[in-house]
Amino acid sequence: MGMQQSAHIVWDWNGTLFHDNDAIIGATNAAFTELGIAPITLEQYRSLYCVPVPKFYERLIGRLPTDAEWELMDGVFHRYYAEHRVRCGLTEGAAELLAGWRSAGHSQSLLSMYVHEELVPLVRGFGIEAHFLRVDGRTGPSGGSKAAHMVRHLEALSGSVEPARTVVIGDAADDAVAARGVGARAVLYTGGSHSRASLEGVGAPVVDTLAEAVEEAQRIAA
Questions:
Q1: Do 213 and 207 contact (CB within 8 A), yes or no?
Q2: Which GO terms describe its molecular function (predicted)?
Q3: pTM of the model
Q4: Is residue 3 classed exposed, middle or buried when 0-12, 13-18 and 19+ CB atoms within 10 A define those classes?
C-alpha cells in the first residue's frame, strides 16, 4: 500500500501564473502585420483564440494559413514575444498562492506550451521553481494541444500524483481538454487568453482570480 497521495495542481504558465497578455497580443498583431492582416484588440483575441493556433488564424482571415505563412507568423510571434515578455510579471498573488499550497502539504507542477529551454530560466528567475515537483515546457512543434504533453507530464510524476486528485489550473479551454484526457479535473481562470463566455461552455468551473482557482482545486481534490 503506497502512502496517501495529496491533492495536486498542474499549473499553466502563459496567461495563468505569468501575466503576459500584453506581450501575447502585441506578438499576435506583429505576426498579423507580416500578412497584411489588421490588428485585433485583446477582447477580440480573448473571444476567438483557440488551439491548434492555425485554426485561430482561420477564424480571423477566413482560411487556414499556408505552411509558409504559418512558419513566418510563428517566427515573428516568438521573436516579438521574447523581446516584450521581460516587462511582464507574475499574476497578482501567484507567488504567495504557490507557497501557501506547498506549505499546506500539497504538491504542484507546471506544464506549459512555452518552449522548455526558455521556460525553465524564466520560472527560475521569478524564484518560484522550488514550489514545483516538475517544470515542463513544450518540446516539438508549436501551435498544438496540451493533451499529449499532459499525458507525458503525469507519467513523469507517476507514483507521486493521482490523476483523480489532480486539478489543472489554466486560462484556456484546451487545459480542460488536456485534464479530461488523463482523468484529472480543471479549473479555468478568466484573466488570460480566453473570455469568460468562451470558457463557460467547457464544463469546468470558471473563476476570476487565482485565489478562487486554488480554493476550487482544494474543494475538488479533497
A1: yes
A2: phosphoglycolate phosphatase activity
A3: 0.92
A4: exposed
